[in-house]
Amino acid sequence: MKLSQVKSFVAVARYGKFSQAAIELNLTQPTVSHAIATLEDDLGVQLLFRSKKGVTLTPAGESILVHCDRLLQSMEDIKQAANRFKSLDVGKVNVSAFRGAAAQLLPKIRAEFKTKYPQIEIKITEEKDCPQVEQMVYEGKADIGFTILPTTKDLDTIEVLRDNYIVLLPPNIDLFISNSSITWQQLLSLPIISYPNQNTCFKQIQNYFAEAEHHFQPAEQVRESDTIVNLVAAGSGAAILPQLSVFHVPDGVTACQLPKPLQRIVVAATPKDKDLSHAVWAFIDFLKQTYD
Questions:
Q1: What is the spatial distance between Cα 126 and Cα 94, in angstroms, rounded to a whole number?
Q2: What's the rounded Cα separation, in Å, for the pair 196 and 185?
Q3: What is the pLDDT of residue 87?
């Protein structure tokens, strides 16, 4: 069975006449007639009822037409997929990201991507938190957004990293840490410095405590990760932070694990049902090959 036979059959079924199908396909009428006759021979069934008024589909023809339509659509999808990766020598990708990803994850990703596609520009915009990132993507102001699952918007996502939360202990607190993990009893005894209530990380930590039937009540709340780390270093309290948010661990500060692991899933998010540029598809394909 050849693709030319399928195209001829679909065209004749659509127009009901060999002559019109031949015009549509830019072929001669005998060529179209021969294509369908050989297709019927190959399949071993009659596809068309032929009369002087035109042609109609047999029951077998009606059933097979559905599959032929799907086949031609699949061929078109294959062509479009290939076209996305043509002309990749130039282009621009606007990336929006929360601060930890922008500072610690994207520089390496961009550098590795540029070795493969040196002419594609990657512009990184840093946002305060994940909802702002997702809004940028949703509104089309960013091509791709690095955010955390679950997203607040309906977006396509690719998992990039699982970011573990850690506990930072100040120099003036001396705890016996067994197997690098703090116990719930020890954690609950500490004054915790955390993010504001509306922050994505705060909500994850709050849910983490609730699942263990504990109430999360920070002693102090500030917006910036660097400020939290510096407050820990000054002895103001301990902190629970994702590793991407800890740009450095000051001298005297001890990092340990939570009683039970807590992760946030970092994803690259793109708009649903939107035509993306060749450059954006190249970046998405790079992420899939690197992190899937």
A1: 11
A2: 24
A3: 54
8 A C-beta contact, residue 165 and residue 240: yes
247, 123: one domain: no
pTM of the model: 0.66
Q: Within its chain, how far is the Cα of 93 from the centroid?
A: 15
Three-class secondary structure of residue 170 per DSSP: coil
Q: What is the dihedral of CA 99, 101, 105, 106, to 10 degrees?
A: -80
pLDDT more than 70, % of the chain: 97
Which of these, 207, 223, 210, 215, lies nearest to 264 by C-alpha position? 207
In this structure, are residues 120 and 88 in contact, taking their beta carbons and an 8 Å threshold? yes
CATH number reported for the structural domain that contains residue 186 in this entry: 3.40.190.10
Cβ neighbours around 276 below 10 Å, total = 17
- Greater confidence (88 vs 166) lies with 166
In terms of domains, do 257 and 177 share one? yes
Q: Could you say which DSSP state residue 236 is in?
A: S
Residue 61 sits in the same domain as residue 198: no
How many structural domains compose the chain? Answer: 3
52 membership: H or E segment, kind and range: none
Same domain, 253 and 272: no
Using pLDDT thresholds of 50, 70 and 90, give the confidence band for residue 177: confident
- pLDDT average, residue stretch 275-284: 89
Which pLDDT band, with edges at 50, 70 and 90, does 88 fall under? low
